[in-house]
Design a protein that fits this description.
The chain is mainly alpha-helical and 435 residues long. It is built from 13 helices and 12 strands. Strand 3 and strand 4 form a beta hairpin.
Length: 435
């Protein structure tokens, strides 16, 4: 019982969440910790600086001792420099505001630019020179728990950058970069994996205002159930995704598709068995004399996984299985229908380039705090733009290679010959090309 009473007394007298001083209920730090001028407990040089530390709220065994400088009154020495001195270390805690027990953002780095504003979601920032300060210091900023201003970002330090190892701090506050093979996270720590190098662990239902999301502004029917995926595999992480079908494989694949189409020409459906008197090789050779083989290549160099994307959705092992891809499929299918009304002529390269461009225009990086308005994955440069370009290109090909589409490749190629090597797209799903 005596232990419980002592523990309770300690919780009352020692700073909540490591904070201290008059702005934190006159809380006092632990015995060996100093209370900094910003109300944070710690044992670093910044916390225990005799010129700025708060002795009445520091621990009895701490190195924060009253000195002649700290005891001077304003009549003897007006306060000047301490107000403009900020920690040069990354704060251990970045939460703030009403919901966090009244924690105030301390400010860090040059002129206290970093970790100075408390966002509406209760986080101190900006944390680095990449984040937009408006996300923390703009709308919704909690004025009573830090600054809510617009400052000019500090200049790049002139001193050479140091190097930090795994678990150590990095970024502009400490003027250090991570060692080879490590990434500096948004919270200024070195490490590997998604938390440091990837999209992070944010989910669409979170309200952290410092995260931009790619959103398809033209797609209105994507439901929140399709927004659960939070990681994206970049193209360079999937070598086979860059893979182009070699000529021998291409000829085999093209022959198979042309063969299947020839089976359906005189009939209303698919053949389960090839007629015994049907000479596939002869038929394929005859087809090749009537169509432009190079144009067929533009269709056939699509990975087999992409062929099955539409209209049945995306397989779980497909790298384009993501909310963006689902939105793009809808967007590009709609664009294809729009073009069919205009009856505009395209060749294969033009239609693919056009559809990919429409996809890139549809995906815009936006800042949204409403979960229902988000789509897809956080934007973490570098890499996402390249992923988006790949996604648009292959989704465009997937739209054109849907089951009804690939059954009509032959008609499309023949129409190209009839229309100065161009053909028009009639519709998606029913009669895909102009008969």
């Amino acid at each position: 019982m005596r232990f419980s009473a002592f523990a309770l007394l300690s919780l009352v007298s020692v700073a909540f969440a490591g904070n201290c001083g008059p702005q934190n209920g006159n809380a006092k730090c632990a015995a060996t910790e100093c209370c900094s001028q910003y109300g944070w407990c710690g044992t670093t040089v910044d916390h225990c600086d005799a010129k700025t530390c708060l002795h009445p709220f520091s621990g009895a065994s701490s190195s924060c001792k009253p000195t002649q400088t700290t005891m001077k009154t304003s009549a003897t020495k007006p306060a000047t420099s301490p107000a403009t001195t900020f920690p040069t270390a990354v704060p251990e805690i970045d939460v703030c505001g009403h919901a966090q027990g009244g924690v105030t953002c301390p400010g860090a780095g040059a002129s206290g630019y970093f970790y100075r504003c408390c966002s509406s979601a209760g986080h101190c920032g900006p944390k680095n020179d990449i984040q937009d300060q408006a996300l923390y210091c703009g709308s919704g900023c909690q004025a009573g728990f830090g600054k809510c201003d617009n400052q000019k970002a500090p200049a790049e330090p002139t001193a050479p950058k140091g190097t930090s190892g795994a678990g150590e701090t990095c970024g502009p506050i400490v003027n250090k970069k991570c060692a080879a093979g490590l990434c500096c996270s948004g919270s200024n720590f070195c490490g590997t994996g998604e938390d440091f190098c990837g999209r992070g662990k944010l989910h669409p239902n979170e309200t952290d205002p410092n995260t931009k999301f790619f959103r398809c502004i033209q797609c209105k029917s994507i439901t929140p159930l399709l927004m659960d995926r939070t990681t994206v595999t970049l193209p360079d992480e999937l070598p086979w995704w860059r893979w182009k079908i070699c000529m021998r494989r291409l000829e085999k694949e093209a022959s198979e598709f042309w063969l299947v189409r020839l089976q359906t020409l005189p009939h209303s459906g698919w053949f389960r068995e090839i007629p015994q008197d049907w000479d596939a090789d002869r038929q394929v050779k005859e087809i090749k004399t009537h169509v432009r083989y190079d144009d067929a290549v533009k269709f056939m160099d699509v990975p087999r996984k992409v062929w099955a994307m539409l209209p049945y959705g995306f397989s779980l092992d497909n790298p384009v299985e993501s909310p963006e891809a689902l939105a793009l499929e809808e967007c590009l299918s709609g664009e294809l229908k729009r073009l069919s009304v205009q009856r505009k002529l395209f060749n294969t390269k033009e239609i693919l380039d056009h559809m990919a461009a429409v996809g890139r225009d549809a995906l815009k990086p936006v800042v949204v705090q409403d979960a229902s308005a988000r789509l897809g994955n956080p934007v973490t440069p570098p890499g996402y733009e390249a992923y988006r370009d790949f996604l648009c290109e292959w989704t465009a090909r997937g739209v054109l290679m849907c089951p009804m589409g690939r059954m009509s490749i032959l008609e499309f190629l023949r129409n190209m010959d009839k229309n100065n090597e161009k053909a028009w797209w009639k519709d998606v799903g029913d009669v895909f090309f102009d008969p």
